[in-house]
Design a protein that fits this description.
Structural class of chain A: alpha+beta
Number of domains of chain B: 4
Number of strands of chain A: 5
Strand order of the largest sheet of chain B: 4-5-10-7-9-8
Protein name (chain B): ABC transporter permease
Strand order of the largest sheet of chain A: 2-5-4
Largest sheet of chain B: 6 strands, mixed, barrel
Number of strands of chain B: 23
Oligomer: heterodimer
CATH architecture of chain A: Orthogonal Bundle
Largest interface: A-B, 44 and 51 residues
Helix content of chain B: 40-55%
Distance between the termini of chain B: 66 Å
Order of helices and strands of chain A: HEHEHEHEEH
Membrane topology (chain B): Multi-pass membrane protein
Structural class of chain B: alpha+beta
Keywords (chain B): Cell membrane, Membrane, Transmembrane, Transmembrane helix
Family (chain B): Belongs to the ABC-4 integral membrane protein family.
Radius of gyration of chain B: 37 Å
CATH topology of chain A: Arc Repressor Mutant, subunit A
Shape of chain A: globular
Number of helices of chain B: 28
CATH superfamily of chain A: Winged helix-like DNA-binding domain superfamily/Winged helix DNA-binding domain
Largest sheet of chain A: 3 strands, antiparallel
Shape of chain B: globular
CATH class of chain A: Mainly Alpha
GO molecular function (chain B): transmembrane transporter activity
Strand content of chain B: 5-15%
Number of helices of chain A: 5
C-alpha cells in the first residue's frame, strides 16, 4: 500500500473527527488558534528550560502549571514536540525513567534557548500591550 | 546561526529518510508510553481497564491521526512518498513486463532518435565558445552590397581596435591554413594547420595557456620581428608527447624558426566548429603565411581576410556596439573611398553568426531536430495509448484507493511516478541508442590531412537534453491516463470490474492519438523520401565528370610558400611539374587547379562588369565564384568545353587576359548569344578587360545539392597562386601514378612536401556518398521508426477495442451477424482514423516539402512521386495493422464470447 492511505484528509468520506485539527483548546476563550499555537511552543520550551523531560511529564507539568486553564489535548502535544525537534530547538534522547521504563526525553538546545528568550520577550511585549488595552476599555 | 540549525536538523532529516521504520517505531513507542500512563492514571481513579483504555484513547484525540501529524513535521514526506511511489511503480510495472518493456523500448527509440540531431543542432548553433563568459563575445563583420558577412583587412582591424569603446578588447584571426612544420632545418616539412591571431587573442578571450604564456602586445607590433608560436593542445599532446619543457624550444614553421612560448589549454580547442588549430602565430608574422602574392597584408585595405571579434563591455548593448561600428564604417568610407565605398559594418552574436541564411549545415541540423522530435512525439503517443489501455483495467484499483480516502492529486502523483520510471528507463536506453546514432555521424571521413573534427558528441549538454526530454515525455504520455483514471465515478468504478464505462469521451482521446501517429509518421516518411530524391537528383546533373574522375584521378597539393619560393620560382615549379607529369608513364593527362570541384575548400570570389550588359541600377559589379587552372585542367578533370577553346600554353603572362566561363554564366549574361570573344572587366567598369575564350559545361562545384551557379576559370599563368593541386588522370587506377609523381617531385625539389595526396574518390565519397548518405540514413531510420511505432499503436488500439468488445461481438454473432459484418464493424473505425491521419499527414508533409525545398534543395515544385509512393504504402500498412485484430474478432465463438468476462 504505497499511497493513498496516509494523508487521508480530503475526499468524499472524511470523518468530522479527523477533519478538525484541534491543537490546544483553551477554556473560556473563543478560538484564538494562531495565538495559542505559538503559545504552546513557548510553554513547552519554557518547561524544558528547567530540565529534560519526556512527553508525559511535559503534559502533566503543563496541566499543573496552568491550573488546568490551558487544556492541551494529550495527542496534540506530540506533533508540537516533533515540530520543535525538527526546527532544531529541542533535541531528544531515549533514557530510563525513574520507574525504569524507556522514554524519550526532550531537552532544550542552544538554538531553542535563544528562541525561547526571543519569544518570551515578544510575549511580554504583546501581553502587556493587550493588558493595557483591556484596562483602557475598563476605565 | 543557520549552520547550527542544520547541525540539529540534517541528521534528523536523514534519519527520517533512511531509518524510517525505526523512527516510526520510536514514535509508536513514545505515544504508547503516554497512553499507558493515561490508562494507569484512569485505573488509579477507579475505572475498569476496559473503560480506562477507551477514556485514554479519547483523551489522545485520535491516536493515529496525531501520529500522522507528527510525521508531517518531518518535512520529508514528499520524498518518502516519492520513494514509496517508486517502489510501488516498479512492482506494478514488473507485473506487466511485456507492456513495460514495449513502452521502454518505444521511448528509447524516441529519445535515442533525438540524440544525433540535437547534438548537430547544438554543435552548429548553440554550443558556446570554449572561453569564459562566452555570451559577450560578438563578431564584427564588414558589409557590402553582396554580403553582410564579409571579413576585415588588417588596416581596418587596427582602426576598429583603436577607435571603438564598446569592447574590452577586439581580436582578429586569419583563416585556418596549412603550415609547413618541421622540428629542425633541412628536414622535409610536414603539413599541419594553424592560424594567425592578433597579439591580444588569448588575453581578450580569457584563455590561459596550460604551459608558458600567451602573446605579449609588443610581439604583434612590428611585421616579422617576433617569430613566436602558441601550440594547440592536440598537437602538443600527440606530436610532442606532452613535452613539459617545450616552452623556450624552437620549431620550424614555413621554413622559419619559431620560439614556442606557450601551449593552449585542453579546454580551448579553438573558436571554430570544425577545426582544431595546431599553431597560433601573431598577425605580425603574416608575410610568412600570406595567401595572395599580389596583395600586401599589412597595407592593402582591401585585403580582407580577418575574422574580427570583440568582447562587449559590461553594460554595453549589442545595439550600441552596432551603432558605434556603423559610424566608424562611415568614417572609413569617407577617408578611404577607393577601398571602402558602399561598405558598412555590423555586429552579431555567436548565435546570429551561426544561423546565417546562406549556410546550409545548421538548417539540416534544425530540420533533423524537428523530425526527431516528431518521432519522439509518435513514441509518446504510443506510450500514452498503451497506458490508457492499461489504466482502464485499473479502474477498480483506483476507485478503491479513492474510496479509502486518497486525494486525487496524490493518486495522480502516484500514476505519474510510474510514467516517470518508464521514461527514465526509456531515457537511459535512449542514450544508448543515441550513442549508436552518433557513431553513424562519425562515419564521415573528411578528405583532408588538416586537423579537423566532427563536433557531434554525447556530452553533458546532450545528456541533460535527453533527461529533460525524458521528463517532458513522462508528463506528455503519463498525464492524460493519470487524469482520466482518477476522474471516474467511484460507485461505477467499484462495481465494474475491469470494464470500461461507456462514453465516447474516452475513446475520443485514443482516436486522437492514433490520428497523430499516422499523420506524424506519414510526414516523416515524406521527409525521408524527399531527402533521398533530393540527394539523388543532385547526383544526376552536373556530376558526369565526377563519376569518371573518381576512378582515375589522383590529386596532389603543393604549397611552395612552405619553402619560401618567390612568385616567379613558384610559377616555374608548377610549369615544370605539369609538363613532366604529362610525360610520366600511365598518365593520360595532367592539370592544375586551385580547388578541385566538390573539394573541402571554398572557391575564391571575383567581381566583374560584363561588357554589353545593362547593369541593374543598384549594383556596380556582379559576383562569381572562380578557380585558377592551367591548360591541362579541363582534360584532366573531364569537364568538357562546349564552345570556343580551352586554355593553351600561349595564354601566358604577356598574352591578352583570358577566361573561360561555364554555361550557366553564359546563359545568365548573354542568353541566346555566343559569349566567345566577349569581354568582362575585373573589379569595376574600367577594370582589366578579360576575353572569354570558351564555355565549359556547368558542373557541381560546392556540393551535389547546389543550384547551378556562375563560374569563371582564369589561367594560372596570368594569375599566380601559391597553393595548387595537381590532377593526374591515370589510364588505369589512380594509385598507379603515385610513384611516378613522387619521383618527379623529388627531382624538382627534394625538400618540397606534397601537402596532401588523395584520389578523387575520397572527395566524391565525401560529397556524393557519405554526406548525403548520413542524412538519408538518419531520416530513413526516423521515418521507419515512426512508421513502426504507428503500426504498433494502431494494432494495439484495434486489438484492445476488440478484446473490450468481445462480449458485444459475441452477441452480435449470436443474433446473426456474419464474419464480414464483424470485420467491417471493427475495421471501419480503424479505416476512418487512418484516413483522417493520412489527410493531416499529407498537409504536414506538403508544408515540410515547401520548407525543405526553400532551405535545402532548391528543387521547387511538388515531388508527386513521393506522395504516390508514400501515401498508398502507408495506407496499406496501417490498414493491415487494423485488419489482423479485426480478423481475430471475426473468429470469436459466440458461445465463448458470451461467457467472457
Amino acid at each position: 500500500m504505497g499511497a493513498g492511505g496516509r494523508k487521508a484528509r480530503a475526499g468524499a468520506w472524511t470523518f468530522p473527527l479527523i477533519t478538525e485539527r484541534t491543537l490546544p483548546s483553551v477554556t473560556d476563550m473563543s478560538k484564538p488558534n494562531d495565538l495559542v499555537q505559538g503559545t504552546l511552543d513557548l510553554l513547552i520550551l519554557k518547561i524544558l528550560a528547567f530540565q529534560p523531560l519526556h512527553g508525559w511529564a511535559i503534559s502533566r507539568r503543563l496541566k499543573t502549571i496552568s491550573d488546568d486553564v490551558l487544556q492541551v489535548s494529550e495527542g496534540s502535544l506530540y506533533p508540537a514536540l516533533h515540530k520543535l525537534e525538527q526546527e532544531g530547538w529541542i533535541t531528544a534522547e531515549w533514557k530510563q525513567t525513574e520507574n525504569n521504563r524507556r522514554a524519550k526525553f526532550y531537552s532544550l538546545t542552544r538554538l531553542g534557548r535563544r528562541h525561547l528568550e526571543r519569544e518570551s520577550a515578544s510575549w511580554h511585549l504583546l501581553s502587556s500591550a493587550i493588558t493595557r488595552v483591556v484596562r483602557l476599555s475598563e476605565a | 546561526m543557520r549552520s547550527e540549525h542544520w547541525w540539529y536538523t540534517v541528521p534528523l532529516r536523514l534519519r527520517s529518510i533512511f531509518l524510517r521504520s525505526r523512527v516510526d517505531r520510536e514514535l509508536d513507542e513514545e505515544m504508547q508510553f503516554h497512553l499507558d500512563r493515561l490508562i494507569e492514571e484512569a485505573i488509579a481513579e477507579g475505572l475498569s481497564p476496559q473503560e480506562a483504555r477507551s477514556a485514554a484513547m479519547r483523551a489522545m484525540d485520535g491516536l493515529e491521526q496525531r501520529k500522522e501529524d507528527a510525521r508531517d513535521t518531518r518535512r520529508t514526506g514528499w520524498l518518502t512518498d516519492f520513494l514509496d511511489d517508486v517502489r510501488y511503480a516498479s512492482r506494478s510495472l514488473r507485473q506487466t513486463p511485456g507492456l513495460s518493456l514495449f513502452v521502454v523500448a518505444t521511448l528509447a527509440l524516441g529519445i535515442g532518435m533525438t540524440s544525433a540531431p540535437l547534438s548537430m543542432t547544438d554543435a552548429l548553433i548553440f554550443r558556446p565558445y570554449p572561453v569564459p563568459h562566452p555570451g559577450n563575445v560578438v563578431t564584427l563583420t564588414s558589409t557590402s552590397r553582396f554580403s553582410s558577412f564579409e571579413l576585415f583587412s588588417y588596416r581596418e582591424y587596427l582602426d576598429i581596435r583603436d577607435h571603438t569603446k564598446s569592447y574590452d578588447g577586439v581580436i582578429a584571426s586569419g583563416d585556418f591554413v596549412p603550415f609547413g612544420y618541421s622540428v629542425r632545418a633541412g628536414e622535409v616539412a610536414r603539413v599541419r594547420g594553424g592560424m594567425l591571431v592578433s597579439g591580444n587573442y588569448f588575453s581578450v578571450l580569457g584563455v590561459r595557456p596550460q604551459l608558458g604564456r600567451g602573446f605579449r602586445a609588443d610581439e604583434d607590433q612590428v611585421p616579422g620581428r617576433n617569430p613566436v608560436v602558441v601550440l594547440g593542445p592536440d598537437f602538443w599532446k600527440h606530436e610532442l608527447a606532452s613535452d613539459p619543457s617545450i616552452v623556450g624550444k624552437t620549431i620550424r614553421l614555413n621554413g622559419v624558426d619559431f620560439a614556442v612560448i606557450g601551449v593552449a589549454p585542453e579546454s580551448f580547442p579553438g573558436m571554430q566548429i570544425f577545426v582544431r588549430p595546431d599553431f597560433y602565430v601573431p598577425l605580425a608574422m603574416a608575410r610568412r603565411f600570406s595567401t595572395s602574392a599580389n596583395k600586401d597584408f599589412f597595407e592593402d585595405r582591401d585585403d580582407r581576410g580577418l575574422i574580427v571579434r570583440g568582447r562587449l563591455k559590461r553594460g554595453v548593448t549589442l545595439q550600441q556596439g552596432r551603432n558605434e561600428l556603423a559610424a566608424l564604417a562611415r568614417d572609413l568610407e569617407r577617408e578611404h573611398p577607393q577601398s571602402n565605398r558602399n561598405r558598412g559594418a555590423w555586429v552579431r552574436t555567436q548565435f546570429q553568426m551561426r544561423t546565417r541564411a546562406d549556410e546550409a549545415n545548421w538548417k539540416f541540423g534544425v530540420i533533423f531536430a524537428v523530425l526527431s522530435l516528431a518521432v519522439l512525439l509518435v513514441a509518446c503517443t504510443n506510450a500514452a495509448g498503451l497506458l490508457l489501455a492499461r489504466a482502464s483495467t485499473r479502474t477498480r484499483e483506483v476507485a478503491v484507493r479513492l474510496a479509502l480516502g486518497a486525494g486525487r492529486s496524490r493518486l495522480i502523483r502516484m500514476l505519474l511516478t510510474e510514467s516517470l520510471l518508464l521514461a527514465c528507463l526509456g531515457g537511459l536506453a535512449g542514450v544508448g541508442v543515441g550513442f549508436v546514432a552518433l557513431r553513424i555521424l562519425h562515419r564521415f571521413s573528411i578528405p583532408t590531412t588538416l586537423p579537423v573534427q566532427i563536433p557531434f558528441r554525447m556530452d553533458a549538454r546532450l545528456l541533460l537534453a535527453s533527461l529533460v526530454l525524458s521528463l517532458a515525455s513522462a508528463i506528455a504520455f503519463g498525464l492524460a491516463p493519470a487524469l482520466q483514471s482518477t476522474r471516474g465515478n467511484l460507485v461505477e468504478g467499484l462495481k465494474a470490474a475491469d470494464v470500461e464505462p461507456l462514453g465516447r469521451k474516452r475513446l475520443w482521446g485514443r482516436n486522437v492519438l492514433v490520428v497523430a501517429q499516422v499523420s506524424a509518421s506519414l510526414m516523416l516518411l515524406t521527409a525521408s523520401f524527399l531527402m533521398v530524391r533530393g540527394f539523388h537528383n543532385g547526383l544526376v546533373e552536373g556530376m558526369e565528370f565526377a563519376k569518371v574522375a573518381k576512378d582515375h584521378v589522383l590529386m596532389a597539393s603543393f604549397d611552395p610558400r612552405l619553402l619560401q619560393y618567390d612568385a616567379a620560382r613558384t610559377q616555374r615549379f608548377y610549369q615544370q611539374l605539369a609538363e613532366r607529369a604529362r610525360e610520366a608513364p600511365g598518365v593520360q593527362s595532367a592539370g592544375l587547379t586551385q580547388n578541385p570541384p566538390l573539394g573541402l575548400e571554398d572557391f575564391e570570389a571575383m567581381r566583374f562588369v560584363p561588357e554589353g550588359v545593362q547593369m541593374p541600377d543598384d549594383r556596380e559589379t556582379f559576383n562569381s565564384a572562380m578557380d585558377t587552372v592551367d591548360e591541362g585542367f579541363f582534360d584532366a578533370m573531364g569537364i568538357p568545353i562546349v564552345r570556343g577553346r580551352a586554355f593553351r600554353r600561349s595564354d601566358g603572362p604577356d598574352a591578352p587576359r583570358a577566361a573561360i566561363v561555364n554555361e550557366h554564366f553564359a546563359n545568365h549574361f548573354w542568353p541566346g548569344a555566343d559569349p566567345v570573344g566577349r569581354r568582362i572587366h575585373l573589379d569595376r567598369r574600367d577594370g582589366t578587360p578579360v576575353e572569354i575564350l570558351g564555355v565549359a559545361r556547368t558542373v557541381r562545384y560546392r556540393d551535389t545539392g547546389e543550384k547551378s551557379l556562375d563560374f569563371v576559370y582564369l589561367p594560372l599563368a596570368q594569375r599566380p597562386v601559391s597553393r595548387m593541386t595537381l590532377l593526374l588522370r591515370a589510364t588505369a587506377g589512380p594509385l598507379t601514378v603515385l610513384e611516378p609523381l613522387q619521383d618527379i617531385v623529388r627531382t624538382l625539389d627534394p625538400n618540397l612536401p606534397i601537402v596532401d595526396t588523395r584520389t578523387y574518390m575520397t572527395i566524391y565519397r565525401y560529397a556524393a556518398v557519405d554526406g548525403p548518405g548520413v542524412a538519408i540514413n538518419l531520416v530513413t531510420i526516423m521515418g521507419a521508426t515512426a512508421l513502426l511505432l504507428a503500426i504498433a499503436g494502431l494494432y494495439g488500439l484495434v486489438a484492445y477495442n476488440v478484446s473490450r468488445r468481445t462480449r458485444e461481438i459475441g452477441i452480435r454473432m449470436a443474433i446473426g451477424a456474419s464474419r464480414p459484418d464483424v470485420i467491417r464493424l471493427v475495421l471501419g473505425k480503424g479505416l476512418v482514423l487512418v484516413a483522417v491521419g493520412t489527410v493531416i499527414g499529407l498537409v504536414l508533409g506538403f508544408t515540410l516539402e515547401q520548407l525543405m525545398n526553400s532551405m535545402l534543395f532548391n528543387a521547387g515544385g511538388v515531388d508527386v512521386w513521393v506522395y504516390l509512393v508514400v501515401v498508398p504504402s502507408m495506407f496499406l500498412v496501417t490498414m493491415l495493422a487494423a485488419y489482423v485484430p479485426a480478423l481475430r474478432a471475426s473468429r470469436i465463438e459466440p458461445t465463448e464470447a458470451l461467457r467472457y468476462e
